Amino acid sequence: MREKNDSGRGGADASSDFSASTNSASENSVSPAGTDSLLPPLLLGTYTPKIDAKGRVALPAKFRQQLGSGCVLARGQERCIYLLPFAEFRRIAAQIQRTSLSNKAARSYLRVFLSGAVDQEPDKQGRVTLPSMLRDYAHISKDIVVIGVGTRAEIWNKADWDTYLDQQEDGYSDIADDVLPEVAF
């Protein structure tokens, strides 16, 4: 059975308060000693904000601090929306663009990824607007989940996220050796 982390508190009100979560500020910027300035801050945790009638979502407070002046929203894999700090978006875009223009798959990916990208600056309440094109792509309506995935966050339709997580949890332990061959826990 899966235990849910809704900002560290139970009840319906926990989904709208982002000032507290189960991750402390030091845990939210995990990095080896002495390398803090070399590594980007990590976006961690699971949050369940509400989306308003205008398509705006209040970002978790910790994410706002790490995003600084803004972010880029883009189509993600598995029908989610990527929320990327500007620096991470530029790194990914540059990496994709270095791929040969003769590579048809790279051209296709670049077109889809960049054509759906929108830069956003959170308003005074820390909200960003999810464009209708991205909401349609990710099946976003009322109930959403925002998850930290290291150097990016992902915004999911809650039902899609729950289904995805349920499907992945059984194999989670089995794939650890393939994904993390050199990491000892």
Automatic annotation (TrEMBL):
Gene Ontology BP term (one): negative regulation of DNA-templated transcription initiation
Keywords tagged on the record: Cytoplasm, DNA-binding, Repeat, Transcription, Transcription regulation
Pfam families the record matches: MraZ
GO cellular component terms listed in the entry, alphabetical order: cytoplasm; nucleoid
Subcellular location: Cytoplasm, Nucleoid
Biased segments, Low complexity type: 12-26
Superkingdom, natural source: Bacteria
Domain SpoVT-AbrB, first and last residues per copy: 46-88, 117-160
Annotated region described as Disordered, given as residue ranges: 1-33
Gene Ontology MF: a single term: DNA-binding transcription factor activity
Subunit structure: Forms oligomers.
Family statement: Belongs to the MraZ family.
UniProt cross-references to NCBIfam families, sorted A to Z: division/cell wall cluster transcriptional repressor MraZ
Protein name, per record: Transcriptional regulator MraZ
Gene source species: Scardovia inopinata F0304
Lineage: Bacteria, Bacillati, Actinomycetota, Actinomycetes, Bifidobacteriales
Gene, per the UniProt record: mraZ
